[in-house]
Design goal:
Distance between the termini of chain B: 10 Å
Low-confidence stretches of chain A: none
Mean pLDDT of chain B: 90
Number of helices of chain A: 5
Mean pLDDT of chain A: 89
Helix content of chain B: over 70%
Largest sheet of chain B: none
Radius of gyration of chain A: 16 Å
Strand content of chain B: under 5%
Shape of chain B: elongated
Shape of chain A: globular
Number of strands of chain B: 0
Low-confidence stretches of chain B: none
Number of helices of chain B: 10
Oligomer: heterodimer
Largest interface: A-B, 18 and 24 residues
Structural class of chain A: alpha+beta
Structural class of chain B: mainly alpha
Radius of gyration of chain B: 25 Å
């Protein structure tokens, strides 16, 4: 299967990230691995692009974040752990509903859905 | 690590956002890029190729800059503009920053003093003399405050670097102690000087002595709080902002 990349994913990145966070809190790297695994390797996203989406969602109150506690003696840059908020859960449910309608309508137009 | 920091900085530096926001972006993106390189190195076993592949997976800096900028709110952009007036700007030296702040404060103080002279036109001569004396008390305070700004900023930077031992300065408790004493003396002397200049009477200066003594004790405490609350973040910010991100770097 041809990988899905670029603008196609970017337009749906926020609900995808929310869905990945539904499994539990995670930092950006872990979130991307969840998305890759869920998409069976078909999703190809420029990984840095996840963070602007996370910042927008945090600003909108859909997710919350905090710095991960670094174990004593461990050096290197800290990671930020994200978790879904109540508003984020409601937003995800609405996005799922919209996607069902969208995919059904587009499917009918393209002739892939009867 | 430096090569990765340069790549991250190419993405973040052009973003118009407050310093704290940009530092968060930097740290988060660097943590991600570091993990990517580790993953690629484990897969290929080749350090150079791993970095190249990690950069490809991470994305083009110019594109990412645009996406990061789009995530910055309007209020944060205004905050960044205000920070531009008051905050340190790479790569200016500590002394240039201190004098820039002093000049700004002096201009502001002179404007305030000038504005405070306006009511004088509406007062009769009996009240004017009293008003003028009170105006001089306030103005001399503002001028002395502007005059001590540069030395206070400079001593703060020296104290912070001596305590935290960064930016090419080795950690030294004795040097830090010396700067703390100096920091305490500056407002103490400035307070006495202000009382002498404003009231032209040493007795008033003596009467106000307990206030200057309080300043003498409080100043090092404030210095320690500033250093240990924001000092580390300031140093991290300085290191990022001073990175060479031209094509020849990294």
């Amino acid at each position: 299967m041809e990988p899905i990349s670029g603008d196609v994913i970017r337009g749906h990145l926020e609900p995808l990230a929310l869905a990945a966070l539904e499994q539990g809190e995670a930092h950006g790297f872990e979130l991307l691995r969840r998305l890759e695994n869920a998409g069976s390797g078909a999703l190809r996203l420029k990984e840095g692009s996840l963070y602007p989406a996370l910042y927008r969602m945090e600003e909108a109150g859909l997710i919350k974040s905090a710095w991960e506690k670094t174990p004593a003696g461990e050096r290197g840059p800290r990671r930020r752990v994200y978790r879904l908020t109540g508003k984020g859960k409601r937003h995800l449910a609405a996005a799922r509903g919209e996607w069902l309608v969208f995919s059904r309508v587009v499917g009918i137009i393209l002739g892939t859905t009867s | 690590m430096n090569e990765l920091m340069v790549h991250v900085e190419r993405c973040v530096r052009p973003v118009l956002a407050p310093a704290e926001r940009k530092d968060r972006m930097r740290e988060e993106l660097l943590a991600h890029l570091t993990r990517l390189v580790e993953e690629e190195r484990a897969r290929t076993g080749d350090g150079e190729a791993a970095i190249k592949r990690a950069f490809e997976r991470f994305g083009d800096p110019a594109t990412l800059t645009g996406e990061l900028q789009a995530s910055v709110t309007r209020i944060e952009r205004i905050d960044r503009i205000v920070q531009g007036w008051f905050a340190w700007r790479a790569p200016e030296s500590a002394s240039r920053y201190a004098w820039r702040m002093t000049a700004r404060m002096l201009v502001f103080d002179l404007c305030v003093a000038g504005a405070m002279l306006l009511p004088l036109f509406f007062k009769n001569s009996a009240l004017a003399a009293d008003y003028l004396q009170r105006w001089w008390n306030g103005t001399s305070f503002l001028l002395i405050q502007a005059a001590v700004m540069a030395p206070l900023i400079l001593v703060y930077f020296r104290f912070r670097d001596s305590c935290l031992g960064r930016l090419g300065v080795t950690r030294s408790l004795s040097r830090a102690l010396g700067f703390a004493v100096l920091f305490a003396i500056i407002p103490f002397v400035a307070g006495i000087a202000w009382a002498l200049v404003a009231f032209r009477d040493p007795r008033v200066s003596l009467a106000l002595f307990p206030h200057w003594f309080s300043a003498l004790l409080a100043a090092p405490l404030l210095l320690c709080i500033a250093t240990f609350v924001v000092g580390k973040a300031q140093l991290r910010h300085t290191e990022w902002e001073c990175l060479d991100i031209t094509e020849s770097a990294g």
